[in-house]
Design brief:
Blueprint: H1 4-16, H2 19-26, H3 30-44, E1 49-51, E2 56-58, H4 60-87, E3 92-98, H5 100-107, H6 111-117, E4 121-127, H7 134-137, E5 141-146, E6 153-160, E7 163-167, H8 169-175, E8 198-202, E9 205-209, H9 220-229, E10 234-237, H10 238-247, E11 251-259, E12 264-270, H11 277-290
Parallel strand pairs: 3-4, 3-5
Antiparallel strand pairs: 1-2, 5-12, 6-12, 7-10, 7-11, 8-9, 8-11
Helix pairs in contact: 1-2, 1-3, 1-4, 2-3
Length: about 300
């Protein structure tokens, strides 16, 4: 019978993307992780990973094997969480995926209170601006900013995300303040990438505007630095630029228009019969911290 520890290592390698990263998360050396994976492959009589000098990827057999064991591992973890919850202890690893900027600004600085309350719990926070595959990536939950869509995932809404048009006072002094959307073509705008459309809500209802400018990037943080430096007008969330708007470092542009109000901050997690105690506790912690009126809006 296959060792459950080998299955956990196999699953963690997939979640972390490498044997060395999986070893660090588990407190094992890369050599031990490699040996345990090889032992599992020998036990099954099939190669589970394709290995190159730079990366590893699942073989067809490996993907099929993972699809069949991920539910088993989740069930074992839920059973352990149930017993841990009854005993008052919260242990194990909490795997979280979150957007890069939001995670840096509003999750990382607030982790200490949660981790101090549960010192036996290890938190693995992965920051990415892609919508992670929660189940395939081995995450317990993901923090997402966007419009909620129907899926097999369960969502807990924390708060609305308010987005405003803004620019630096220096930019406004040099180029003037636009009075309407019709004035925007004469201004430099800062979209996150070339295909972006600003979906706005204003006096006439829902409108769209395709911003044009000299700078195009796939990085939201580059846009943030560009608007602060005076390169143009950007559509930014108040969780990102709220303090700068209050201090006058940035100025709101066309305040009668804001981004779509359907965008929300939420936690999403796999639909399970038994929600692990560690996931419920972290979601409740964030709900108390952010909602319904988050601190950056107060």
């Amino acid at each position: 019978m296959t060792n459950l520890g080998d299955l956990e290592i196999f699953s963690r390698v997939i979640a972390m993307g490498s044997m060395s990263a999986a070893g660090r998360a588990l407190g094992l050396s890369p050599a031990v992780v490699s040996k345990r994976v090889k032992r599992l492959e020998e036990r099954l009589g099939s190669r589970l990973f394709q290995r190159t000098t730079r990366q590893i990827s699942l073989t067809e057999a490996g993907q099929g094997f993972y699809d069949r064991i991920v539910g088993i591992l989740s069930g074992i973890e839920e059973a352990e969480a149930f017993v841990s919850g009854r005993s008052g202890a919260v242990r194990g690893t909490l795997r979280i995926s979150a957007p890069t900027s939001f995670g840096r600004m509003h999750i990382a600085p607030n982790l200490k209170g949660f981790m101090d309350a549960y010192p036996e719990l290890v938190v693995n926070l992965m920051l990415t601006d892609d919508f992670s595959d929660i189940v395939g990536g081995g995450f317990d939950l993901a923090i997402r900013i966007g419009e909620l869509s129907d899926s097999s995932l369960v969502a807990r809404r924390f708060a609305p995300v308010r987005r405003v048009l803004c620019a630096s006072p220096d930019y406004i002094a040099r180029h003037g303040m636009p009075a309407s959307l019709d004035d925007l073509p004469a201004h430099a705008c800062l979209p996150p990438h070339t295909q972006d459309v600003w979906r706005l809500e204003g006096p006439e209802g829902n409108v769209t505007y395709r911003p044009q400018g000299q700078l195009y990037t796939n990085s939201s943080e580059v846009v943030r630095e560009a608007v602060f430096s005076g390169l143009g007008i950007a559509l930014r969330s108040t969780w990102d630029v709220g303090p700068a708007l209050k201090s006058g470092e940035l100025t709101q542009v066309l305040p009668q228009y804001e981004g779509s109000r359907n965008v929300v901050l939420s936690a999403v997690y796999p639909s399970r019969q038994f929600l692990p105690v560690k996931v419920r506790l972290f979601i409740d912690y964030l709900a108390d911290l952010y909602g319904p009126v988050p601190y950056w809006e107060r």
